[in-house]
Amino acid sequence: MKITRVSKCLDKRLQLFGFEVMDIIAIFFTLSVLNFLFGETGIKLLLVWVPTLVLAGFLRFGKKGKPENYLLHLLRFSIRPRKLSAFFNPTQSLSVSALEGYKL
Question: What global pTM score does this model have?
Answer without folding.
Answer: 0.62
